[in-house]
Amino acid sequence: MSFLTLGHRGVMGVEPENTLRSFVRAEGAGMDAIELDLHLSKDGALAVMHDAVVDRTTDGTGPIAGKTMAELRELDAGKGERVPVFEEVLDAVKSPLQAEIKDVAAARALAEVILARDLVGRVEVSSFHDEAVTEIARLVPGVRTVLIASRWRGDIVERAKAAGAATLALNIRRLTLEVVEQAHSESVKVIGWVVNTQDHLRLARALNLDGATTDFPEIRRTGRFTA
Length: 227
Hints:
Elements: E1 4-8, H1 20-28, E2 33-40, E3 46-48, H2 69-73, H3 86-92, E4 97-101, H4 104-116, E5 123-127, H5 130-139, E6 145-149, H6 156-163, E7 167-171, H7 177-185, E8 189-193, H8 198-206, E9 211-214, H9 217-223
Parallel strand pairs: 1-2, 1-9, 2-4, 4-5, 5-6, 6-7, 7-8, 8-9
Antiparallel strand pairs: 2-3
Helix pairs in contact: 4-5, 5-6
């Protein structure tokens, strides 16, 4: 079974997260896929940013939903980088992408882009919200989806199946072999996040995970050889 390594917001451990600079470096490091986050701007653009507000990752303040994309572009997202729109990322790198959406509205906007640019084979869609996963699957036939969870109950595999998610992305600090085995018995893959240390990488391998999300390029290199 192949072990996939996903670059978390690019490679946010060494570059400003969710920027073109970070995504290009992740691709250069050989990441199997690149994970990013999407929020809708005031004018409906798919802005690439993790938080609902710009305060932590830019020199601005306030909610993304209260700013147009032009206003977001005026902000410094680190090292002079600008807040990208999703379409810019599609053009800047060729790697497979895992796009995390925060709600049903973002699912609908992302569905339009996936359908218009025929991205079903390249873009996997993830969310903490079951309803967003269900909605993107309804709108885009054949799209691969991922249900994310930090804390979960015993029904997490059933939730993934109900939402049509082929993969679970679960907090590596809370993962157990029981959950992984249950998921695999139902043909649901499991990736762990965030795997930033050799100990966590060894744990990911011991749990027989299908992959890991990481902030650092070196995890991709050492992950090839860790038993």
